[in-house]
Design goal:
Helices cover 74% and strands 0% of the residues. With 434 residues, the protein is mainly alpha-helical.
């Protein structure tokens, strides 16, 4: 673990330059280490801590929920849908709070709330408390904490943002592969209520104190510049201060295309993951095979995230949007074909699309619309994503209960993803200073 900030940096000198906001842009001191390399693993841990609220963290509890509370596939999917929509509506406001109160404070509160929600989940007694827990898990995990982890990297990195986003998302791919096995093990050992208590303890005792000790608000707070740059330029000041507000961002077609891409990605991914066990049952396979499929998905994600992080710093992001959604559309067509030989390949193909979409989510909003109002803008994008994620499981549940299987919903998903992929060709960025 690197030394504390006071040991890493010498006292920064006064700087003559200021940002447009009036905040001083400090003269970087002689540096032994760029503190952004400490913030990167902290951001990774925050992203990993979203797992209890992610669909891949919830799906393996679903059989227990259905049994304990006597729920059908459609009813539990509908509960998840309404809770997720409600959670999504709070995110622009919560993103604005992170702009107002700072990333450090809001991150500590969010991780503490995730621990408390896991503790609450262990005490559920019926569908009402299940709904409350679903709402909180979705609002805090894939909503607020994902926003905070990505905005942390966007604060500390600029030119290297694609690379570090790729590194963080590779770790998240490993989390997607490992967490299901870990959760199943906890449930087998302690029961589903005990598993939630164990997750609460890990977050409260392990992560919260670590963040309190090491998290720093921004490079300026420790006398540094983004990327560890050693010299001030007008470009640094301009890029740090620039940013469209939400109303201005909405005037650009790229905003709406990126919003639609986020929504359909989340819709499809959540549907495929929420019904993962049921999909494999429809092929005559069990839960152990479904956890292995998550492993293939994660391996494909990791590969494309490394490549995507490299490309995001070098090629127009709209080409990544087109490629990512094409992969996702193809994966739905493979699953809809009901060919068991394509089952594993379909999840690996989806993993390629998801890997690229995570890089887009981590870089495009900051690069297209700036950092001045990034919390609120990214909060709106997460509203679209989480609202989309609420629809996917219900569509697939209705497809099974009323249309005879998953195929009708999968063909629909494939068509919509392909249409948005085509629209991605026009997702060019607004004019930015630089």
């Amino acid at each position: 673990m690197p030394p504390a900030t006071s040991e890493v940096l010498e006292e920064p000198e006064a700087c003559e330059q200021t940002l447009a906001t009036g905040e001083s842009l400090p003269q970087p001191a002689t540096q032994k280490i760029f503190y952004g390399w400490v913030m990167l693993p902290l951001s990774m841990l925050v992203m990993m801590a979203t797992s209890p609220g992610q669909t891949f963290g919830i799906t393996f509890f679903n059989a227990n929920f259905r049994s304990a509370f006597n729920l059908s596939q459609t009813r539990i999917s509908a509960t998840y849908l309404v809770a997720t929509i409600l959670a999504s509506l709070t995110l622009p406001y919560l993103g604005g709070l992170s702009d107002r109160f700072g990333l450090r404070r809001t991150t500590l509160v969010a991780v503490t709330m995730m621990a408390a929600t896991c503790a609450l989940a262990s005490q559920m007694r019926g569908v009402v408390t299940l709904f409350i827990v679903f709402t909180l898990l979705r609002m805090i995990g894939p909503g607020t904490m994902v926003l905070l982890a990505n905005n942390t990297l966007a604060t500390w990195f600029d030119r290297r943002l694609g690379m570090v986003s790729g590194i963080m998302q590779v770790v998240m791919a490993g989390t997607i592969a490992g967490i299901p096995v870990f959760i199943v093990s906890l449930i087998d050992t302690f029961g589903w209520r005990g598993a939630y208590l164990a997750l609460a303890a890990i977050l409260a005792v392990g992560l919260v104190p670590l963040l309190a000790l090491l998290y720093r608000e921004s490079p300026t707070a420790v006398g540094q510049l983004p990327d560890g740059s050693r010299h001030h330029t007008d470009e640094h000041a301009q890029r740090a201060a620039w940013g469209l507000d939400l109303q201005q961002a909405r005037q650009h077609r790229a905003y709406w295309i990126l919003l639609a891409a986020a929504a359909i990605w989340a819709l499809i991914g959540t549907g495929l993951t929420f019904h993962l066990s049921a999909i494999f049952e429809s092929y005559g396979l069990g839960i152990r095979q479904s956890t292995r499929a998550i492993g293939y998905l994660a391996a494909a994600m990791a590969t494309t995230q490394l490549l995507g992080g490299f490309l995001a710093d070098r090629v127009p992001l709209r080409w990544l949007v087109v490629t990512a959604l094409s992969f996702i559309s193809a994966s739905c067509m493979m699953l809809a074909s009901k060919n068991i030989q394509l089952l594993t390949l379909s999840y690996a193909t989806y993993g390629c699309g998801q890997g690229l979409m995570t890089i887009i989510a981590g870089t495009a909003w900051a690069r297209y619309f700036g950092r001045a109002h990034l919390g609120k803008i990214r909060g709106m994008s997460l509203t679209a994503a989480i609202a989309g994620s609420s629809v996917g499981p219900l569509c697939m549940g209705i497809s099974v209960d009323y249309l005879g299987g998953f195929a009708p919903s999968l063909w629909l998903f494939a068509a919509v993803a392909a249409a948005i992929a085509f629209a991605g060709l026009w997702a060019t960025p607004p004019q930015t200073p630089n």
